[in-house]
Design brief:
This protein starts with a helix and ends in a 138-residue tail after the last helix. It is mainly alpha-helical. Keywords: Signal. InterPro entries: PELPK1_2.
């Protein structure tokens, strides 16, 4: 029984690990704005080649004609047969039986609730809260730290393996 549970756990783990995240990546790619073009070339890195302005033409190709679809002959359908409407016979319902009357009964008088004696409560004693004086809070001095400037990393149109695929056309 333990081996069956272990096998089921392995199957569940495999199913979870092999789940597809393509929909999320596609949604991210479709909703992410395109990258901004680079401002200036970076020294030491070759420039990205540009595409040719003239797109080569594709030679014309002849396609065989589409075969004709046979027409369906027009047919007259038989008329719909008349359906007899069933008649419901009138039924007579027996009269409703009369409900027996409940006899009038005199109830005994309600017992008197004994009254509570009048009591006076002793006065509430006054609670004295002692007044405390706290010492002043010492001032906390945070030293001013200047961080060095982060060097800029040039943006290059190099595909990264972890970046989402391009948006669908």
């Amino acid at each position: 029984m333990a081996s069956m549970a272990s096998f089921l756990a392995t199957i569940m783990a495999c199913a979870l690990l092999s789940s597809n995240t393509c929909h999320g990546a596609r949604n991210l790619a479709d909703t992410t704005p395109p990258a901004a073009p680079t401002a200036a070339p970076v020294p030491g890195i070759p420039a990205v080649p540009t595409l040719p302005a003239v797109v080569p033409t594709v030679p014309a190709m002849t396609v065989p004609p589409m075969p004709t679809v046979p027409t369906v002959p027009q047919m007259a359908l038989p008329p719909m047969p008349a359906m007899p409407v069933p008649t419901v016979p009138a039924a007579t319902v027996p009269p409703m039986p009369t409900m027996p009357t409940v006899p009038q009964v005199t109830l005994p008088p309600m017992p008197v609730v004994p009254s509570m004696p009048k009591m006076t409560m002793p006065p509430m004693p006054a609670i004295v809260v002692p007044k405390l004086t706290m010492p002043p809070m010492p001032a906390i001095v945070v030293p001013k730290v200047t961080m060095p400037q982060i060097p800029t990393i040039p943006s290059i149109n190099v595909p990264m393996p972890f970046v989402a695929p391009p948006p669908s056309a």
